[in-house]
Amino acid sequence: MIRVSAADSPWRAQGPAWTWAHAANRFLRHHNAWILISVFVVTAIGRSLAGPLGFSDLIVAAAFIAYQPFQEWLIHVYVLHWRPRRVFGITIDFELARRHRHHHSDPGDLRVGFMPTRTLVLASLAHALLWPLVMPDGALAWTALLMVATIGLVYEWTHFVVHTSVVPRHPWVQRVFRYHRLHHFKNENYWMGVTMHLGDRLLGTLPDQRAVPASPTARDLAKAVGAAPTEVTLA
Ligand SMILES: [Zn+2]
Ligand SMILES: [Zn+2]
Asked: Is the residue at 234 inside a domain?
């Protein structure tokens, strides 16, 4: 594996434990953060111009929050840990999966932990086309888009900060950090949620970590899924 960021790169949390402010400062130096913040601001303005909030907005927001643990679980299990397969001589693999395999082999490189920017832009465009078609009116379409933007930003920030050396104080935040670190450093087949773990709880991937053997492939996902070692690009 080729390391994307040098050993002394500021994209690696080194030295004394980072503060939240230091982590936020570093997060804001990545273009994904600015794309997500821009989309959040645009959708917040769009929703505020679309009229007052009503009960149906609450239902839409609650539905997005309720689905998010399962979305994280499904994407992590079936896309990020995708097992490349050959169909009619062509290898089916995804940029997201390649990047995630590199992320498992070098979890200390904060740049590799960001989702591929191309995926982020394409997903944003897909949502912008989808929700106006699916929702009964423009205001609810803006609500849906605002939820997508908020959840995307929270997800990217949470995943980023979990990989820094920030030491959280709140027990709930400590648990979020611990679960994702167990996924990376103990066994890659468990703890598939990142911001929420209801999916893990209901789908059987939130065990007592003392009962789980350390996996030899937690740092070598390519081997676990039978993929050729690949180099990542940070596009
Ligand atoms: Zn991670
Ligand atoms: Zn993973």
From this structure: no
- What is the distance in A from the centroid of ligand 1 to the CA of 108? 9
Ligand approaching nearest to the C-alpha of 183? 2
Residue type at 50 in one-letter notation: A
Cα–Cα nearest to 71, from 223, 207, 221, 197: 197
Output the pTM of the full model: 0.94
Report the separation in Å between the CA atom of 74 and the middle of ligand 2, taken as the mean of its atom positions. 11
- 22-58 per-position pLDDT tens digit: 999 999 999 999 999 999 999 999 999 999 999 999 9
Task: Tell me the C-alpha to C-alpha distance, in Å, between residue 109 and each of 53, 87, 114, 234.
Answer: 41, 33, 10, 12
Alpha carbon distance, N-terminus to C-terminus of the chain = 18
Closest ligand, as measured to the CA of 194: 1
Dump pLDDT digits (tens) for 185-220.
999 999 999 999 999 999 999 999 999 999 999 999
Q: In terms of residue numbers, what domain contains 113?
A: 20-224
Structural domain includes residue 89: yes
| Overall number of domains in the chain | 1
The overall average pLDDT reported for the chain is 95
